[in-house]
């Protein structure tokens, strides 16, 4: 008992230091504005200058301002979404009605908040440099009495609206109907000079509740859905945006005439040397040409013209087998890793695809739309990014060592400037240590030696059991800082993408991932406290204390009970790790907080606790059913079923639906 007490006391210090995080990149400035902390490495990404003027945007529920958008936008366009979001939250904050009008209604004597590439923005000389803000950053500028919010692309404009709300009204979004927003009787006009871009240029949410299942949350988190960023490809009923090689080159189509394209020793991979047939026009050239044409055709068929990233990577095989033909063996022996054959192929593929884009021409009698599409395709020649998974079989970067044991990276292995290795360190430890304490961190830096652009695929859940918390909260910040330091362009921290909603502190995980991807030097302790207050209202302090108790106990699990916390460790649900006193205490404290919220009429916060209760209820029912009387046990079981159904936690694991699990579990 003394040992446990000492460990918990030590853990108090550990958790306190971990949650303290780094200094917030934005500090309160004069007149309610913010200024950038120039001491931080990412200061250039977050230039925030705003000074209060004597004018007002809204006062006592009225406003002269209108929200101005370009003419002719579809209702679903991101700029139109941005305008409606601005209208919604400005109206809620000020009780004023902000009308949305198009360019055609613009008057030089009017007052506007301009959203997107409006004629007014052009006339005012407000522009945005893609090289400065990339696809998802934005500028906010004041000119005269008008405010202009503008991204280089529509996603950046949408993010700019949330940036405007954040800096002007302290808007912060946590979960469905749970957010912060100042309510003001008078909203001053600020003289804005804000230029922001996310530290990680593209951040895909790894949680279903913040991506494919809830577009509103995805927008407000300023993240993307993975499949909306990378060009998807479909063959024979299967669609993927990452595991794509045999969707572009299906063996059923090409295997009979081109057997050399497919791997020896494993049935579901390509041979990236085509068994060594390098004769001009031979099997290797034909494989490159066929793959490039398949990629080109998929870009050509993209009616949205929104994709510029595509993947040509391993088929979906969670193994390390590789082609064993003599040609592949020779390349691997020469360069030191299985990934060498992939690199040589993907470089040739990228150059072939680049030429196809550059040579695109419209037909002689093409329509205006067809000519515009041809111009779009030509423009992709210098813009496309071709990703390839470096994962399991290809995780290790190729290098040799010199006489002194130093790594030597061959120029032959340098990736094409428009090829990005998508590094997915499947075996890394994401809990109990920071990522740079893993050997996989060195592998990430190795790939950085070989490529100009890095994509990063990490993991943030237990895939075999969605009831288990994933203990990564104290390590997320360092993970994102590493991604920033290594100049990662795209980061996907894969979590419960398969669940519509998730328990076990997963909503906090999704929120922190979103915030740290935008600003990896944000104050994690401040963000976490804000989250709990925003999610749980007047019981935010109590729920935060419960969470910290969990962190303390988990540190004991890791240090003394050898709790692995791995991404596939379903065995970590055993009673050894989840003793009755701990789980029961956490459950009853949550129930009590929920009752107090209901008594105060804080329905949203009370509902949010229901989602969090699912995880401890699972452990109580799994291990301690015999310790409760029938009425209490049935109450727990009924609540478990009700909360799971209400919150649509539709999968128990990545491969097992909740409906197939729950009936047997609650017998």
Describe the protein.
The protein is 42% helix and 15% strand. The N terminus is likely disordered. It is globular and about 75 Å long. It folds into 3 domains: 156 residues, Chitobiase/beta-hexosaminidase domain 2-like (Chitobiase, domain 2, 2-Layer Sandwich); 301 residues, no CATH class; 138 residues, no CATH class. With 667 residues, the protein is of the alpha/beta class. A hairpin with a 5-residue loop joins strand 1 and strand 2. The strands form 6 sheets. Strands 3-11-7-8-6-4-5 form a 7-stranded mixed beta sheet, covered by helices on one side. A 6-stranded parallel beta sheet has the order 12-21-20-19-16-15.
Task: Provide a short characterization of the protein structure.
With 667 residues, the chain is α/β, with parallel strands linked by helices. The chain folds into three domains: 43-198, 2-Layer Sandwich (Chitobiase, domain 2), CATH 3.30.379; 222-522, no CATH class; 528-665, no CATH class. The protein contains 22 helices and 21 strands.
């Amino acid at each position: 008992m003394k040992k446990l007490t000492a460990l918990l006391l030590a853990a108090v210090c550990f958790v306190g230091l971990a949650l303290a995080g780094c200094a917030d990149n934005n500090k309160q400035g004069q007149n309610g504005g913010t200024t950038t902390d120039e001491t931080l490495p990412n200061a250039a990404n977050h230039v925030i200058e705003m000074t209060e003027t004597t004018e007002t945007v809204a006062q006592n529920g009225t406003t002269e301002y209108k929200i101005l958008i370009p003419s002719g936008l579809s209702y679903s366009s991101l700029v139109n979404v941005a305008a409606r979001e601005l209208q919604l939250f400005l109206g809620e904050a000020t009780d004023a009605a902000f009308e949305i009008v198009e360019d055609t209604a613009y008057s030089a004597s009017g007052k506007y908040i301009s959203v997107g590439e409006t004629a007014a923005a052009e006339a005012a000389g407000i522009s945005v440099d893609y090289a400065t803000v990339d696809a998802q950053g934005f500028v906010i500028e004041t000119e005269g009495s008008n405010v202009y919010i503008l991204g280089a692309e529509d996603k950046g404009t949408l993010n700019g609206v949330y940036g405007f709300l954040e800096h002007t009204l302290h808007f912060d979004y946590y979960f469905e109907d749970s957010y912060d927003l100042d309510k003001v009787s008078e909203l001053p006009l600020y003289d804005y000079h804000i230029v922001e871009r996310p530290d990680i240029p593209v951040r895909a949410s790894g949680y279903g509740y913040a991506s494919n299942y809830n577009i509103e949350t995805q927008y407000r988190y300023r993240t993307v859905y993975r499949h909306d960023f990378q060009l998807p490809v479909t063959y024979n009923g299967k669609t993927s945006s990452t595991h794509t090689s045999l969707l572009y080159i299906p063996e059923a189509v090409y295997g009979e005439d081109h057997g050399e394209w497919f791997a020896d020793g494993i049935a579901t991979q390509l041979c990236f040397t085509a068994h060594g047939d390098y004769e001009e026009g031979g099997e290797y050239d034909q494989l490159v040409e066929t793959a490039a044409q398949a990629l080109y055709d998929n870009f050509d068929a993209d009616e949205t013209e929104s994709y510029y990233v595509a993947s040509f990577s391993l088929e979906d095989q969670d193994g390390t087998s590789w082609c064993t033909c003599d040609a592949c063996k020779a390349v691997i022996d020469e360069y030191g890793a299985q990934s060498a054959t992939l690199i040589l192929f993907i470089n040739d593929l990228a150059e072939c695809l680049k030429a196809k884009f550059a040579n695109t021409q419209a037909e002689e009698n093409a329509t205006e739309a067809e000519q515009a599409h041809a111009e779009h395709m030509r423009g992709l020649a210098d813009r496309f990014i071709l990703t390839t998974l470096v994962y399991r079989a290809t995780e290790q970067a190729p290098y040799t060592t010199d006489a002194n044991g130093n790594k030597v990276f061959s120029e032959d292995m340098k990736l094409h400037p428009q090829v990005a290795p998508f590094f997915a360190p499947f075996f890394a430890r994401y809990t109990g240590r920071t990522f740079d304490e893993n050997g996989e961190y060195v592998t990430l830096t190795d790939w950085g030696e070989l490529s100009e652009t890095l994509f990063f695929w990490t993991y943030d859940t237990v895939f075999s059991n969605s009831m288990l918390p994933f203990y990564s909260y104290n390590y997320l910040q360092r993970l994102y800082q590493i991604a920033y330091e290594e100049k990662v362009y795209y980061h996907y921290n894969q979590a419960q993408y398969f669940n519509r909603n998730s328990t076990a502190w997963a909503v906090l995980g999704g929120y922190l991932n979103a915030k740290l991807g935008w600003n990896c030097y944000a104050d994690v302790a401040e963000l976490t406290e804000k989250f709990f207050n925003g999610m749980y209202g007047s019981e935010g302090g109590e729920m935060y204390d419960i969470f910290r108790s969990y962190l303390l106990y988990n540190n004991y699990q890791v240090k003394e009970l050898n709790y692995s916390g791995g991404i596939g460790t379903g065995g970590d649900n055993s009673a050894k790790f989840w003793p009755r006193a701990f789980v029961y205490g956490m459950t009853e404290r949550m129930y009590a907080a929920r009752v107090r919220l209901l008594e105060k009429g804080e329905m949203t916060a009370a509902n949010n606790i229901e989602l969090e209760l699912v995880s401890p209820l699972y452990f109580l029912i799994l291990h301690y059913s015999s310790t409760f009387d029938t009425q209490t046990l049935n109450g727990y079981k009924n609540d478990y079923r009700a909360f799971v159904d209400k919150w649509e936690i539709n999968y128990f694991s990545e491969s097992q639906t909740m409906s197939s699990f729950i009936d047997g579990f609650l017998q």
